[in-house]
Structure to design on (265 residues):
């Protein structure tokens, strides 16, 4: 017969183990939240020294008495907007009439992360895009690029003049993250490519194609005579199977050897 004291004891032990297992999870979540808060606070500091003269201390923009806008409100810029303007060095501007152009970023990566977190916290603008080239379909990206980007950025991504407004820049230096951010925000005369019309997979495909335009000879992966991904996969497969076969032969060999050794002993 199991005594009730034992049952209670066992229950308490189980409850204890479950609590111990769950506690670190809850702790991690709280820690992640406080890391996030700290990053936003850091971003707010950087913003107040580097951006608030034009965008306002609260990021809602600065409009002078005569109607002149020093800088627009960033409430809807989102993380994606901050990623685009900061990683391409377009912000900060030296004065409000300067045309934002690609240049060396003014901030270090950690500072950009903080500013992105802060600008993202101002409203519900587009999130930082998570571009994943591993699963991307490059030829599908080529089709989408020709249909949606080529008219302005040219077939080779070299960019070109537009019949109105600023010219479309070259994509030679655009990283996959910048391609994603540009599509989600639609900077300047560029249209916005929404998630409804262009799901994340489309962005991945296009970013992968832009990557190819930047380095047309590099088909990705280890350059095994630049044979491309399929022969590379085959190559790895062959090596892996070869190793397995060798291992089998070796193990088989040992089995046969063992009796010999016993005889010798
Ligand atoms: C000298 C003024 C000035 C400073 C300083 C400045 N900006 Fe700007 N910013 C502007 C102007 C003007 C625009 C509009 C540019 C345009 O498209 O013509 C702009 C646009 C932006 C946009 C795009 C807004 C949108 O939704 O279209 C973002 C994001 C941005 N700035 C972020 C920043 C950040 C972050 C900083 C600080 C690191 C900064 N800016 C510093 C003047 C400034
Ligand atoms: C109507 C013309 C137009 C179309 C269509 C267009 N763009 Fe753009 N694109 C622009 C302009 C103009 C800019 C510069 C905006 C600014 O002032 O920051 C730009 C900027 C960019 C940048 C930033 C480049 C850099 O290095 O600074 C990227 C990346 C980009 N576009 C990718 C795309 C992709 C991908 C597509 C198709 C899905 C596309 N664009 C479609 C006009 C266009």
């Amino acid at each position: 017969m199991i005594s009730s004291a034992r049952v209670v004891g066992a229950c308490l032990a189980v409850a204890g183990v479950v609590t111990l297992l769950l506690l670190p999870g809850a702790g991690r979540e709280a820690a992640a939240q406080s890391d996030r808060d700290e990053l936003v606070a850091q971003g707010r500091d950087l913003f107040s020294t580097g951006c608030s003269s034009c965008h306002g201390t609260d990021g809602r923009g600065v409009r002078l008495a005569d109607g002149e806008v020093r800088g627009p409100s960033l409430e809807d810029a989102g993380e994606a907007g901050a990623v685009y303007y900061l990683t391409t060095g377009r912000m900060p501007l030296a004065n409000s009439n300067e045309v934002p152009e690609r240049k060396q970023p003014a901030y270090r990566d950690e500072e950009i992360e903080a500013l992105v977190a802060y600008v993202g916290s101002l409203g519900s603008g587009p999130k930082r895009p998570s571009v994943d080239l591993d699963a991307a379909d490059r030829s599908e990206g080529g089709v989408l690029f020709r249909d949606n980007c080529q008219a302005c950025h040219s077939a080779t991504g070299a960019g070109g003049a537009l019949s109105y407004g600023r010219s479309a820049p070259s994509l030679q230096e655009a990283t996959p993250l910048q391609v994603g951010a540009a599509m989600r925000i639609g900077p300047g005369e560029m249209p916005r490519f929404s998630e409804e019309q262009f799901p994340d997979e489309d962005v991945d495909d296009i970013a992968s194609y832009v990557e190819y335009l930047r380095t047309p000879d590099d088909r990705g992966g280890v350059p095994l005579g630049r044979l491309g991904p399929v022969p590379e996969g085959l190559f790895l497969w062959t090596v892996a199977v070869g190793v397995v076969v060798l291992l089998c032969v070796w193990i088989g060999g040992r089995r046969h050897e063992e009796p010999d050794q016993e005889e010798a002993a």
